[in-house]
Innexin (Dugesia japonica), 438 residues
Amino acid sequence: MIKDLFEFIPWKESRAHLQDFADRMCSTVTVIILFIFSTLVAYKTYFISPMECFSTDAPNIQNLDKYITSYCWVEGTVDLAADKRTPTDNEWDTMKLKSINYYPWIPIILGIQCAFFYLPNLIWREYCFYKGGTDLQNLIEMSLNASKASMNERPSMIKDISSLIENLFHLHRENRHGLIPEVRRIVFKKMPLLIWGKRSGNAILGMYMVIKLLFIGISIFQCFFMVKVLQLDNSFMSVFYDVFGHIFHGIDWRATKYFPRVGYCRLTGMRSVGVINNKYVAQCVLPINILNEKIFIFLFLWMFMLIILSLIYFLSWIHIICCQPPKIRMIKLYLKGKNIFSKVEEPLIDKFINEFIRLDGIFLLKMIRINVGDVVTAGVVEQLWSLYKSKYRYVDFSCMESSDQKENLTLRLEPGEQKISTKSKIHTPSAPSKDSFL
């Protein structure tokens, strides 16, 4: 049973993944941390006594201390300074409104946090499984296998990867007819960031950015969630000031009153002979809070780190999406490294990026580089560049002909020759006249 529970966490997750460092910190590392914390607190809470209560006013009855402990655990405790007098009945009723009764729910709270962080990963994996056009995870695993293959086997494996990517790009071309597709073409040409979808070549990256926003939103939500559940101050900054300020200045943690080690509760309604309503005040020791305080101090710091890290990587992707130079530099780097790029072909780089591989291609190439490094990525770029020059170099992807028509109208011209539009008709050359030989 325990083995089945641990299989829920991706301990031995494949090295191949479609995530960057920030995503893995959120979807894998954070999930593992929260799962471990939830398991530890659940063991301490439900299998070992989480608190001990004792009342000097209660009669000496067998097992009464256990009953008092269970009663206070369920009803909650109030924080009361040791040098203050015992509150009156009215004061107890007022303090009861601020009683601390979330201790039994800590394992469940941590489990909910764990599920929240795992949810975007499930959505992303479901999308990568054929909903992006093909099995994207398998594509990255093919790249990983190519990086481990021998020098004789690697070229053919890289060729297979490039062919799969080419087919994916080819199937996602905008080849539909009608008013709406034409409007989409016009808008995409003027403002490409307003149109997202498979036909626009940015659906995979768009979905990936949504998942990144989910991770950022969940991290922020978790901070406020812990503040609310743990009954801390409504101001988020006050949590940092009170909790971390006390720690850094060496002040006793109990002064913050967020995780008190000692609490008090009042038992009412206990009947005995001749007395209808007995009232007893019990003092409770909460050793579970020693563990809870360390866990939630770490989680506040961890969530803050996740927010900063996720924002940095999110902005870096925004920079790649909005700016052309980063994409051009990446492609040029690999083409020059393979010695297959010349200045004569430099004007083709923009067309190669914007019309052939597009944003989804840039995303896949970066994921291949993240997983297997530059060697395999350079080989894939080389193959895609060769395929582009041989099959798509003079194809006008903005026209309304179908993909088959575009392929049939493609002319193999040498660098520097005049481009022939795919919209123009191809006439069968007539027989040469007698004067042409003179």
User: Anything to note?
Assistant: Residues 136-171+323-409 form one domain.
